[in-house]
Every structure is written in structure tokens, then in C-alpha cells.
Amino acid sequence: MKNKRLWLSVTLTVLVVVCAMLILSRINETRSNAAPAAPTDLILPPDIQTTAQPDTKKYDDLPDVDISSWEYLIASQAHNISDYVPDVSKISGSQSTFDSRAVDLLKAARDAGWNPYIYCAYRPYLTQEQQYEDQVSENMRKGDTRDEAETAAARVAAPPGTSDHQTGLGADIVDQYYSSLSVDTVNARFLTWLADNCADYGFVIRYPSDKVSITGRNEPWHVRYVGDAAAQFMTEHNLCLEEFVALYQ
């Protein structure tokens, strides 16, 4: 009897192990076939700080706006917005949540003959935190100390509270689906159209190539809602958000 019970116990243990292995195999298969995750932000790590400060030139046509309003919220390494939660809604025809005014910009792109694709829009604090910590953990598994791992992680994933996506006002908009975003692969003609037309709908390019020394990033597909008056002014005077906000301080 004891031998029979032992045999049954061993058999059940083997079956449990086999079932667990099959389940893990299916999970890994599903992950490998899943669509790529939303892109992480390219941001300068603590050891490579931005080298320029926003211009404080005086302008006679400076818009009369309340610079403390939600449209001008900056999320960056210098401005951590902690666990701020914006008011967002689901964009029709998309799985993304974003500021609802993005609909007009997307419609304009379609009318111009493009097939706009929201690569990444609103990204909550906890999601950003998970992406960043996953990158830190990966670096530590490679032998980095915690400090080294965080510095390296910041090169590919914005630390939580520092991503413009968390404001609910920033989105990566491209002309089609891409497995990853790069200035070398995204359609340059679409990016030109986006830069030339987004201000008409209250948006600006959040990270233009000629402002990397201030923002730390070059993302010509990343649009940011700031309102009509600010968008027109920033575009006319070639200002990034940091420069625009600095004019009121």
C-alpha cells in the first residue's frame, strides 16, 4: 500500500511539472507572437545632461495665456510630474487613449492622403515605471550596479514621472505601423507634413531635431497639444515647449 501511494505521489508530481512546463511554453509563445510594446522614450541619462537653457528673448506678440494651465505641463528629467493622472478618452478607431482634440489632426492627415497610425499615446505612471524598472533589472542581470543600471536604463526608457506620454497630451503619430521608431525608417515626407500642419490643430512637434540640446531628444513623430495660440506662436518662432514656458517665468 505504501509503495502504491508513493508511486501515485510521484506520478502526480511529474504530471504537475509537465503541465506547468506546457503552460509556460504557451505563455512564451503568445508573448513572442504579440505586437511590439509601445516605444520607450529616448532621453539623456543623468551623466549626459542637456547643454543649453531655454531662450528668454522678449517677444511683442507673446500670447496671453495662463502658463500654469494643464496644456503647458512639462514632464522631463528636470520636471518630474510624479503620478499625475490626466483626463483622457479613447480615440475613435484606435486602441489609444489621448486628449480628444487629436481626432481633428488625424482627420486632417487622412484628408491629405495619409493613413495616420497612433504608435503610442497616453502612458500611465505605473506603465512607465514598469518599463523603466524592467530595463534596470535587465542591466543588473548583466552585472551593472543599481546606479549603473539606472543610468543605462535612462538611455532607452524615461524614468517614471518624466515621460511626456504621461501628460495625456503627447503622442507618437506615424504614417503606418512600424516595429520600432527611428528617424531613418519613418516616412520623412509624412514627418514633414506633420511638422507643417500640426499647429493648425493646436499641436507642436515636442522634440524637434534642432532642440535636442534643450529637450534631450529627437522625435519628429511626437506631437504635443498646447492649444491654438501657443502652437502658432511656437511654430512661427521655432520654439520648443521648454523655451515657450520659460518666456513666462
Low-confidence stretches: 16-39
Cα gyration radius (Å):
23 Å
Mean pLDDT: 83
Structural class: alpha+beta
Oligomer: single chain
How many individual β-strands? 6
- Tell the overall outline: globular
Q: Biggest sheet: strands, sense, closure? A: 4 strands, antiparallel
Strand order of the largest sheet: 3-4-6-5
The CA-CA distance between the termini, in Å, is 85 Å
Q: Helicity level, as a percent range?
A: 25-40%
Count of helix runs: 8
Following the backbone from N to C, one meets helices and strands in this order, namely HEEHEHHEHEHEHH
Strand content bin: 5-15%
Which labels suit this protein?
single chain; 249 residues; alpha+beta; 8 helices; globular
Structure characterization notes:
There is one protein chain. The protein is of the alpha+beta class. 39% of the residues lie in helices and 10% in strands. Strands 3-4-6-5 form a four-stranded antiparallel beta sheet. A two-stranded antiparallel sheet has the order 1-2. It is globular and about 75 Å long. The model is unreliable at 16-39 (pLDDT under 50).
Question: What is shown here, in short?
Answer:
This protein has eight helices and six strands, in the order H-E-E-H-E-H-H-E-H-E-H-E-H-H.
Topology:
Layout: H1 2-33, E1 89-90, E2 97-98, H2 102-111, E3 117-120, H3 125-141, H4 146-153, E4 170-174, H5 188-197, E5 203-207, H6 212-215, E6 219-225, H7 228-236, H8 241-246
Antiparallel strand pairs: 1-2, 3-4, 4-6, 5-6
Helix pairs in contact: 3-4
